[in-house]
Amino acid sequence: MAKWIAAGDDLLRAIEVRVAYATATSDAARQHREELEARVEEVKRTIKAEARSAEGMGGLEDATLLDLMDEDRIGSMGGVGLGLGGLEGPGPSGSGTRGERAPGRPKRRR
Fold first, then answer.
1. In this structure, is residue 110 part of a structural domain?
2. pLDDT at position 67, please?
3. Is the pLDDT of residue 48 over 60?
4. What is the per-residue DSSP string for 29-76?
5. What is the pLDDT of residue 24?
6. Contact 65/51 with Cβ under 8 angstroms?
7. What is the rounded distance in angstroms from the CA atom of residue 72 to the CA atom of residue 67?
8. Is residue 92 part of a domain?
9. What contacts 94, CB < 8 A, 6 or more positions away?
10. Which of 44, 45, 89, 103 could cysteine-pair with 96, CB 3.0–4.6 Å?
11. What pLDDT is attached to residue 23?
12. Which of 24-28, 62-66, 85-89 has the lowest mean pLDDT?
């Protein structure tokens, strides 16, 4: 009977450890989510402010917010664009024309 009680106590301690770990993990995930949401809101406010200032600048009547955002993204990433490893255009070949393949890749059989 003493072994059975000891085994039950050990099991209870193991469960308590797992519950504490799950609680800590959940708290960390919640905190990360809150920080991320705060960052998203900050970026939204920044984008809105940039859009308002771009509308007020002379000579930018034809520029859209998307154009301005693309220029900022490309400039901040060193000209990499979307950061897809140097792909210049659509498709895996990078040239944007259909039927061409990247150098070193075998021809695909259908």
1. no
2. 62
3. yes
4. HHHHHHHHHHHHHHHHHHHHHHHHHHHHSTT-SS--HHHHHHHHHHHH
5. 97
6. yes
7. 9
8. no
9. 86, 87, 88, 102
10. 89
11. 97
12. 85-89
The token pair that represents 35 in the structure block: 């920080």
For residue 90, being part of any structural domain is answered with no
106-110 average pLDDT score = 63
Q: What is the pLDDT of residue 110?
A: 58
Beta carbons of 86 and 94 less than 8 angstroms apart: yes
- Residue indicated by tokens 């695909």: 108
* Dist CA 75 CA 67 (whole Å): 12
Give the separation between CA 72 and CA 51, rounded to whole angstroms.
13
Compute the distance between CA of residue 81 and CA of residue 73 in angstroms, rounded to an integer.
Answer: 7
As given in the structure block, the two tokens for residue 20 are 């504490």
Residue 101's pLDDT is 60
Q: Is it the case that residue 80 has pLDDT exceeding 60?
A: no
> What is the extent of the structural domain holding 30?
2-76
* Both structure tokens of 99: 């039927």
- In-domain check, residue 25: yes
User: What mean pLDDT is predicted for residues 60-73?
Assistant: 56
User: What span, in angstroms and rounded, lies between the C-alpha atoms of 94 and 102?
Assistant: 7
